[in-house]
Amino acid sequence: MGSRASSLLREEEIEEIKKETGFSHSQITRLYSRFTSLDKGENGTLGREDFQRIPELAINPLGDRIINAFFPEGEDQVNFRGFMRTLAHFRPIEDNEKNKDPTASEPLNSRINKLLFAFQLYDLDRDDKISRDELLQVLRMMVLRMMVGVNISDEQLGSIADRTIQEADQNGDNSISFNEFIKVLEKVDVEDND
């Protein structure tokens, strides 16, 4: 099956995807095989319904948000290249990749791009900030899917959202910008390393 997948992808496409995403040749061909198995319409693209059939996404509290990350605004289909670009955010960060080519753009799996990807999971309206309502909506998603049987009131979730915004918001606009998001996570990293 792997040879069939690689025969459908041109070598230059594989090389371009390798360069852009950091995936190996064998990873790309395996993921292409997975992509084509999800492509029930056999049209070279995936829609949201194709992703919703993946059991791991179906049980993930942020599954809908992760699925949405595959689709640029206004798009309802993703091709293999777009699929691979999004998956690259989930690759581990490898120190040696940082030193390869100083003129190359930041790898998709760099710490900053991973943080931006995570930030965008919370920024539901894509206005480059996380509001209290957006944070509350994501908290509700997480509680509904993860904590079946646990009774957390909307008031308690609101309190968590308020405290989170209060801790992260440095400019007083009652929302969390990407830079504020990064600073909070850096603070958490430092506290975890103590």
Automatic annotation (TrEMBL):
PROSITE patterns xrefs: EF_HAND_1, EF_HAND_2
GO biological process: one example: protein transport
InterPro entries: Calcineurin_B_homologous, EF-hand-dom_pair, EF_Hand_1_Ca_BS, EF_hand_dom
SMART domains hit by this protein: EFh
Transmembrane segment boundaries: none
Similarity comment: Belongs to the calcineurin regulatory subunit family. CHP subfamily.
Protein name: Calcineurin B homologous protein 1-like isoform X3
Provenance organism: Salvelinus namaycush
